[in-house]
Amino acid sequence: MNTAILIEYLPLFAKAAVVTLKISLAGIAVSLLVGLLCSYIQYFRIPVLSQIVQVYIELSRNTPMLVQLFFIYFGLPKIGISWSRETCAVVALVFLGGSYMSEAIRSGLEAVEPVQTESAVSLGMSPFQVMRFVVIPQAMAVSFPAVVANIVFLIKETSVVSAIALADLMYVAKDLIGNDYNTQEALFMLVMFYLIILLPVSILSSVAERRIRYAGFGY
Amino acid sequence: MPDSGISILFTGSNFWRLLQGLWVTIQISLISVGLSFVFGTLFGLLMTVKNRVVKAFCWLYLNFIRIMPQLVLLFLVYFGVTRQWRINLSAWTSAILVFTLWGTAEMGDLVRGALTSIPVHQYESAAALGMDRKQTFRYVILPQTIRRLIAPSINLITRMIKTTSLVEIIGMVEVLKTGQQIIDANRMKFPTGALWVYGAVFLLYFLVCWPISSLARKLEEKRR
Question: Nearest CA of chain A to the CA of B205: how many Å?
Answer without folding.
Answer: 6
